[in-house]
Design goal:
The protein is α+β, with helices and mostly antiparallel strands. It has helices at residues 2-31, 74-79, 98-103, 106-116; strands at residues 50-53, 127-128, 131-134, 143-147, 151-152, 158-173, 176-190, 196-205. Residues 1-20 form the signal peptide. Keywords: Signal.
Length: 207
């Protein structure tokens, strides 16, 4: 009985730490205005407050490894050769960076792809001095964003988060989505003291 209690306490502590780390990555991402300086492109001006969808996006698993690793559904396999992405999108953009290639092994990249194969959409509630979640970004007149849930490498050293940026809302007409402006992908590294620091930031502007 004592062993069972200790095991339950360990599991609870692990879950608590994991939740705290996710919250910290969200805070670091949205509290730093420099993470969204892409919004100053094309004669636009970055807003003082970032409006965030209260529903997360699923990861595009091809950013970690652009090849089959096992576990893909038939639909996912079919989509590998029939992409609907914008022509300027490069699925391997993260690992064209030599430092990223050195930091994240091939085995870990495949592991990250496997972790993100199953679409996960969650409700989130975020609030800070210069950001907060809203129930819908469909009719937002200026900038708004939607974020993935942060994902961590197996050893917990690196964390990834991707934020899609929209202008004039994000809505669908005749099966096509509108409002895409760009995206920001941020990689954080965990320091020996347990704190996280920004390791890399990748901007993608949709022209």
């Amino acid at each position: 009985m004592k062993i069972l209690k200790l095991a339950l306490l360990f599991i609870l502590a692990t879950i608590t730490v994991a939740i705290a780390q996710v919250d910290e990555i969200y805070r670091l991402t949205f509290s730093d205005p420099t993470n969204f300086d892409i919004m100053n492109s094309l004669s636009h001006k970055q807003p003082k407050t970032i409006l965030i969808s209260n529903v997360t996006d699923s990861w595009d698993y091809t950013v970690f490894w652009n090849g089959l690793v096992g576990g893909e559904t038939q639909d996912q396999i079919d989509r590998e050769t029939k992409t609907t992405r914008h022509e300027s999108y490069d699925p391997e953009y993260l690992f064209r960076d030599p430092q990223m290639l050195k930091a994240i092994s091939t085995t870990e990249r495949k592991s990250l792809r496997k972790k993100t194969l199953k679409p996960t959409v969650k409700k989130i509630s975020l609030k800070g001095v210069n950001y907060h979640t809203i129930t819908s970004i469909k009719n937002v007149k200026g900038f708004c964003v939607a974020t993935t849930e942060p994902i961590f490498t197996s050893e917990g050293r690196y964390a990834f988060i991707k934020v899609d940026i929209y202008f004039g809302g994000h809505y669908q007409i005749d099966g096509a989505w509108h409002g895409d402006f760009g995206s920001v992908t941020i990689v954080y590294e965990k320091l020996p003291n347990g704190k996280w620091k920004k390791y890399k930031k990748f901007d993608h502007l949709i022209l």
